[in-house]
Structures are given as structure tokens and as C-alpha cells.
UniProtKB/TrEMBL annotation:
SUPFAM superfamilies for the chain: FAD-linked reductases, C-terminal domain (SSF54373), FAD/NAD(P)-binding domain (SSF51905)
UniProt main location, coarse: cytoplasm
Gene name in the database record: PAOX
Superkingdom of this protein's organism: Eukaryota
Amine oxidase domain ranges (all copies): 22-490
Family: Belongs to the flavin monoamine oxidase family.
Cofactor: FAD
Species in which this protein is naturally found: Apteryx mantelli
Matches recorded under Pfam families: Amino_oxidase
Location in the cell: Cytoplasm
Keywords: Cytoplasm, FAD, Flavoprotein, Oxidoreductase
Official protein name in the record: Peroxisomal N(1)-acetyl-spermine/spermidine oxidase
Length: 504
């Protein structure tokens, strides 16, 4: 593969996130290859920033399921980017259900730490209910259209059987409500009522104890970028339109005709035989109508409209001194008067902060300082993006004082947060299978154009990105695999079959 000048086909990739870099890494067929990235940096939703005395991940945080079946784990291990514990055989075998397992403490809104027994037994109820959604995969009749409606109906059925007094039962409901908010962060959605029940368990988890990158998640895309020939990635090159099914010629060369022309916001345009589109589903939802000419086939446009793409943001707070016990790595929050059986508040201004699930303690403090990372999903998260740093910091100081029962708790000394919904080239955090859509829509989104396989100019527009991976959507490994998939599609077309090197 060459940056430019080879004799093979011309390939453009829109974006320089993990899907795009993965495609570039594996494209052996391309004679000319360029990645056009809108931002001033590569990595997309992988975004490490300096914060406190260390680093903060504004986007992807963990390798979910770091084990041999996870290509991000294999690639990162091969590049030597992971800490020693990630390589331990025993960690790779842990069945954590694709999420980090962290020792936790739960603060109630009355300013007290909640009983771990009550919290754990309630979490077990939620987890069993979530597990029971497996039976609906590919099932004909569903008890409810969404995961949220199903879970709430089950909770309403079970609640009368719970032991304990009315206060304990209310507290259990409040803890369950906190479980719903965590699930919203995991699915990247405003409400579990928006997540389709039937296909929910098509998302597949891998074994392994979730791990982080000691040098920052961005060390992975940085490393992949540095392996590409200089000049392959063009930064600050937002693409405005992709014309396909055309007959475009370069000035002064009447011989060669290209089916694809990509125009950038700055007026530059590029002709190509193939373009791999890796822009996020959030961008496609907003822009697909004028982004493609001719417009996308109706089936694909419908898949873009139906699939879900929501917001999950992070708020990093740095403290002079920790107020938490060093044994805990997760500080959870429960608003004691809430219940999944009651209507949630729609007053974002008054209540946005109640959607925050709590904080992950960033470890180790010697490297990062005393830093907490809060997670918040949905419309409340999007509202938070409209506030200033000072407003968020003062609200969270007030919240932490309430939760700890300490009105003197010192305010954090600094704050850093993500704003993925306002980001014009993302418009949210990651995809989910929404009510009214299914895994088939993911496959439709991934289908290259033109749809007619007998078209003499095949594979003009290809689609990669996390939202195009049917079982690993919403993850970095889904993104990487989707990029590799589309590169192999082109390699196959041109018979470029030699084994990939040096990637694992
Ligand atoms: C993971 C994790 N993680 C937290 C948060 C976020 C995400 N993910 P990119 O967007 O990277 O690249 C596209 C590029 O295109 C980009 O650079 C744009 O600038 C560019 N572009 C757009 N328009 C353009 C134009 N017009 N012209 C030119 N360029 C243009 N994943 O594995 N572990 O811990 C997290 C997390 C806050 C925002 C995450 C995590 C998701 C990944 O970050 C994401 O999937 C990939 O980076 C996307 O790569 P890409 O190349 O596709 O797009 C049951 C069930 C539930 C299902 N969900 C469970 C999994 C939970 C996911 N985990 C989330 C948790 C965290 C904390």
C-alpha cells in the first residue's frame, strides 16, 4: 500500500478514527490512498487529553473484553501499549459481561452510604432481569417492544414479593432506578424505553477484565497513524459531499474516468474509484440527505433513521485531596425518592445532574492525581453540554456535599468534560439498536453501493465504523473490525490476497 503514486485503484477514506485507520492498515489493493479527516487530529471518538497530573479519556475508556478474540487487545498488545496485568492469562479469562468490575460504594441522596447488602442484592435482581432478555433474541412474540418497558413490567410484578418494610422497598426501587441510568450509559441512550428488546442480546461480550491504556487510548491510533506513509492522512479536511455513479475526469487527463468525487468544505475535491465512509451514525443522521449524490437508496436511509445513536458524556473532576476511601474505585449515586415505576422528571434545568450515575476513581493517584470521572447519558447529558464549566462544577460540588453529608466538602480544583453531542462530526457518542430497528438495519448500513452486485463499477461507496458491526457496535473493537472488513472487501475485488503484515 502506498500513500500516493501506485498503479492500483484510488481509494479515499472519510474519517481517521479507528475504523478508518484499520481500513488503511489492511488495504493492500490501493495504489493511491488518502484519509480525509474533518478534525485537526486522528482518533475520532478515541481522545486522550492531559488533565490533573496525568491523562483523561474523553472518549473510549476501556478495552471491553481484553482477550484473544478482541482485535484491539491483540493490536495493543502487539504494539506493547498495555500494562503487565492485561497480559495475565487469568485476567483474560474473567467473564465480566463486557464491563469493568470495580469495587464500589453507594452514596444515597440522604447523605448516607447505602447498605452494601441491599445494593448488591438489588443489583443482582437487575442483572438477572437483564440476563433474561436473552430469550427474546430472534423470538416471535415479545412481551414489550423495548428493554425498558420489559424490565419495568418485571419489576412491577416482582416488587410485591420483596421482603422488608416500605422504606426498604422504596430504597430497592431507587437502587433499581440507578441501575437503569447505568444501563443508559452502557447503551448510549436517553432511556432504555428506546432500546429494542428483540435484538438487545445480539450485542456480544468477550471474556477478559476490562483494561485501560497506561499511555492513553490515543496511543493506539497514534501508533497506527505513524505506520502509514507520510501524507496519507489529511487533517482539517471536512468532507461536504460524496458524488457516486459519476464519470469524473481529472483536468488534462481525458483517459481515466472515476465514478466517485469527494468534495471538501474548503473547496478541494478528490476523484476516486472507491470511498470508504467511516463517519459516525450521528453525522449520517443529520447530514446523509445532502452528503451523498445521488442520495442513498431508501433502505439505507431508513436504516440510518431507525438505528439509535445517543449521548454518553464524561465529567472529570480533580480534587486537592480525596474524600473517598482508597479501597473503592467506583462511587455510585442513588436518589432515594426515585423509582423506575414512576415517570421520570422532564425538567432538565432543575434535575439534569440526577442522571449522573456516579464516578469512577481514576487509578493510580500517584500518576493521575485525585481524579473522579462521572458518566451521564441522554438528554440530561446533552443539556449539561450547554452549561459552562463553572456551572457544572458548582452543581456537582453541591451534589457531592449532599451525597457525602458534608456541607464543607471542598470544591474540585479543576474540571474537564466531553461534549459529544455538540461535536459536529460526531453528534452523539455511540449507536444502539432502537425500537423499530433490528440487527438487519446494521447490515443494511454496512452494505456497499451500488447495491446491484453486477454493476460494472462495484464497491464505489463502502461503509465502516462502529455502527456497522452487527455484534460489536458501540465499541472500538467493532470499529476496528469494520475497517478491516471493508479493506478486505476491496482486497478481494482486486485479488490482493497476501497475508496482512505486520498487524496481528
Ligand atoms: C470501547 C469504551 N467508551 C465513551 C465515550 C464515547 C465512546 N466508546 P470515529 O468517530 O472514531 O471516527 C470517525 C471519524 O470521522 C472522526 O474522526 C470524525 O472527525 C470524522 N468525520 C466525521 N464527519 C466527517 C466529515 N464530514 N469529513 C471528514 N471526516 C469526518 N468503546 O470499546 N470502550 O470504554 C468506550 C466510550 C464517551 C464517545 C466510547 C467506547 C466507543 C468508541 O469510542 C467508538 O465505538 C469508536 O471509537 C468509534 O470509531 P469509528 O472509527 O467508528 O468512529 C447490550 C448492549 C449494549 C451495547 N453497548 C455496550 C458497549 C458499551 C460501549 N462502551 C462505552 C463506554 C465507554 C466509556
Amino acid at each position: 500500500m502506498e500513500g500516493s503514486g501506485g498503479s492500483g485503484p484510488r481509494v479515499l477514506v472519510v474519517g481517521a478514527g479507528l475504523a478508518a485507520l484499520g481500513a488503511a492498515q489492511r488495504l493492500r489493493a490501493a495504489g493511491h490512498l488518502h484519509l480525509l479527516e474533518a478534525r485537526a487530529r486522528a482518533g475520532g471518538r478515541i481522545c486522550t487529553r492531559p488533565f490533573g497530573s496525568g491523562l483523561a479519556e474523553l472518549g473510549a475508556h476501556w478495552i471491553h473484553g481484553p482477550s484473544e478474540g478482541n482485535p484491539v487487545f491483540r493490536l495493543a498488545s502487539c504494539y506493547g501499549l498495555l500494562g503487565p496485568s492485561a497480559a495475565e492469562e487469568e485476567n483474560q479469562q474473567v467473564e465480566a459481561g463486557g464491563h469493568p468490575l470495580l469495587p464500589s460504594v453507594t452514596y444515597g441522596s440522604s447523605g448516607k452510604v447505602l447498605s452494601p447488602e441491599l445494593v448488591n442484592s438489588t443489583r443482582a435482581i437487575f442483572s438477572d432481569l437483564l440476563d433474561s432478555t436473552h430469550v427474546f433474541l430472534h423470538a416471535d412474540g415479545l412481551p414489550a417492544p423495548s428493554v425498558g418497558q420489559y424490565l419495568r413490567a418485571e419489576i412491577a410484578r416482582l416488587a410485591p414479593t420483596w421482603e422488608g418494610d416500605e422504606n426498604t422497598k422504596q430504597l430497592r426501587l431507587a437502587i433499581l432506578n440507578a441501575c437503569f441510568k447505568l444501563e443508559c450509559c452502557i447503551s448510549g441512550t436517553h432511556s432504555m424505553d428506546l432500546v429494542a428488546l428483540g435484538p438487545f442480546r445480539e450485542y456480544t461480550t468477550l471474556p477478559g477484565l476490562d483494561c485501560t491504556f497506561p499511555g492513553g487510548y490515543s496511543s493506539l491510533p497514534d501508533r497506527m497513524l505513524s505506520a502509514l506513509p507520510k501524507g496519507t492522512v489529511l487533517l482539517n479536511k471536512p468532507v461536504r459531499t460524496i458524488s457516486w455513479q459519476g464519470s469524473f475526469r481529472e483536468d488534462g487527463d481525458m483517459e481515466k474516468e472515476f465514478p466517485v468525487r469527494v468534495e471538501c468544505e474548503d473547496g478541494d475535491s478528490f476523484l476516486a474509484d472507491h470511498v470508504i465512509v467511516t463517519v459516525p451514525l450521528g453525522f449520517l443522521k443529520e447530514r446523509h440527505q445532502d452528503f451523498f449524490q445521488p442520495p442513498l437508496p431508501e433502505r439505507k436511509a431508513e436504516a440510518i433513521r431507525c438505528l439509535g445513536f445517543g449521548t454518553n458524556n464524561k465529567i472529570f473532576l480533580e480534587f486537592e485531596q480525596p474524600f473517598w476511601d482508597p479501597d473503592y474505585q467506583l462511587l455510585e449515586v442513588v436518589w432515594e425518592d426515585e423509582s423506575p415505576l414512576a415517570e421520570p422528571s422532564t425538567d432538565l434545568e432543575a434535575n439534569w445532574f440526577k442522571k449522573l450515575i456516579g464516578f469512577v476513581v481514576i487509578q493510580p493517584p500517584e500518576q493521575y492525581g485525585h481524579v473522579l470521572c462521572g458518566f451521564i447519558a441522554g438528554k440530561e447529558s446533552e443539556y449539561m453540554e450547554t452549561l459552562s464549566d463553572a456551572e457544572v462544577l458548582s452543581t456537582l460540588t453541591r451534589v457531592l456535599r449532599t451525597l457525602t453529608g458534608n456541607p464543607q466538602l471542598p470544591a474540585p480544583r479543576s474540571i474537564l468534560r466531553s461534549r459529544w453531542h455538540s461535536a459536529p462530526y460526531t453528534r452523539g457518542s455511540y449507536s444502539y439498536v432502537a425500537i423499530g430497528s433490528s440487527g438487519e438495519d446494521i447490515d443494511v448500513l454496512a452494505q456497499p453501493l451500488p447495491e446491484d452486485a453486477s454493476d460494472p463499477r462495484p464497491l464505489q461507496v463502502l461503509f465502516a465504523g462502529e455502527a456497522t458491526h452487527r455484534t460489536f457496535y458501540s465499541t472500538t473493537h467493532g470499529a476496528l473490525l469494520s475497517g478491516w472488513r471493508e479493506a478486505e472487501r476491496l482486497n478481494d475485488l482486486y485479488g490482493a490476497t497476501e497475508p496482512p503484515c505486520p498487524t496481528p
